[in-house]
Structures are given as C-alpha cells and as structure tokens.
Amino acid sequence: MDTEQKNRRSLRGERYFRWRGRDVTRLENLSDIVFALSLTLIVASAVPATFRELASLWREAIAIAFSFALILLIWSKHHAFFRRYDLEDGLTVLINSTILFLIMIFAYPLKFMATFLVNFFTGYFQTPGQIESTLSLADVPYMLAVYAAGYALVFGLFALLYAHALRRSDVLELSEAERIMTRLEVDQGLAAIGVSVAAILLGFLLPVGWSTMAGGVYFVIGPIMGWLSSRARKRANAAHAPEGGTVS
C-alpha cells in the first residue's frame, strides 16, 4: 500500500473500505436532523427551581451521557453505512426511515431508564417506597421487554441494511475484505437480537424480584462483539494483504 493510499485511509478512518459516498445526501440530512432532535429530547429538562435541584443535576448529566453514548453509537453505524455503500434505493430508504422512527420513539424511554438506573445506584432513592412508585418489581419484566425489543429492532434493522449491501456486492464492486466486514455487521446485528431475546425470556421466567438480574445478560454483548470482530478482521487481513504478505 503506497503513502497516498495510507493517507486516504487515515483521513477516512477506514481500514478495509473504499468510501463510495462522498457528498451528504438529502436522506442523510434528514437522518442527522432526526438524530439531533432525539438528542434534544434527551437533554431537555425543566429548569431547576432551587439550588438543591441544581446541585442534583450531576445525576441527570450521567444519565444524559449514557443516553448520548447509545445514540452516538447508532449514528456512527448509520454514518459509516452511507459512506461505505452510498445506497439510496427504495429498500434502503424504507429501512432507514424505520430506524429513524424507532430512535424518535425511544428517546424518552431511554432517558427514563438511564435516569432511574443512575438514581438507583447513586442512592437518590431513600426508601423502597420511592423506588416502587417509580418502577415496581412487577413492571420490571415489561420495561426490560420494551428496551430489549427496541435494541433488537434497531440493530436488527442495521443488520438488514448491511445484508442488503451484501446482496448488492457485485454492483457495488466490494472487495473480499469489504464483503467480510459487511458480513460482520450482519452477524453483530443478529447477535444483538439473540441477546435481547434472552433478556426478555429471562425477565419473564425469573421469579419476581430476580427479574432485575435479566438485564445483566447484556454484559455478554461486549465479549461477543469483540470475538466476532476479531475473527472477521483476521479473515479480512488475509484477504486484504498482498500475496505472501500481511497488512500493517
């Protein structure tokens, strides 16, 4: 790989992909507006009326950070897809529109759950009654099902987007390394669905009081995604390397 190719790869932040999307399209403009609006809904809150309320805003700041991180993860996957493939056919528009709709729908529930968890683990609730009035144990499986379903739907739809790109690989002239990394995105979306289904089942199958532990299944997401990514990158390196060499 010559110096010019390495510089282009560095500027675009991609090792295995040739970016086909150069200009920001109207579809991406609309998508960015929806992402920005969703972040606004998450950040928006009532103005503190007392210093005590102002001093407690650090909890809300942590909740906003968690929500922002998830929205940013979704946005980065969205951005990468359109830079990599530059697809704007009917199916892409339909799946993309559904993703944007889900993001809008889940903005407030995401903020609610993040705020509840931060308040719970930082000792904001002084009595069990305060916790019960916010989220009862009987409601936990249903709340977990809502979030798991949202997580599975969003990342499952991204899997559909990447599967669509994979089906168009000949038209897009994807290299073997690009096909491997595209298939990785599909596999990671399917893994997200599998973990979410497991969380929903555990939430309803575990006894009341233990159902809160079902959310812990999401801790396996990191190792699963890391393993899938490591396996795919090894294959992509082999496909991307010059014959008899390796990719630096």
Quick description:
The chain has helices at 3-12, 26-43, 51-55, 57-85, 90-105, 107-121, 128-134, 140-167, 169-172, 176-205, 221-240.
Please give a structural write-up.
The chain has two domains: 23-127, no CATH class; 136-248, no CATH class. The longest helix has 30 residues, at 176-205. It is globular. The chain is built from eleven helices and no strands. The model is unreliable at 1-11 and 243-248 (pLDDT under 50). With 248 residues, it is an all-alpha fold. It has helices at residues 3-12, 26-43, 51-55, 57-85, 90-105, 107-121, 128-134, 140-167, 169-172, 176-205, 221-240. Helices cover 73% and strands 0% of the residues.
Topology of this protein?
Layout: H1 3-12, H2 26-43, H3 51-55, H4 57-85, H5 90-105, H6 107-121, H7 128-134, H8 140-167, H9 169-172, H10 176-205, H11 221-240
Helix pairs in contact: 2-4, 2-5, 2-6, 4-6, 4-8, 5-8, 8-10, 10-11
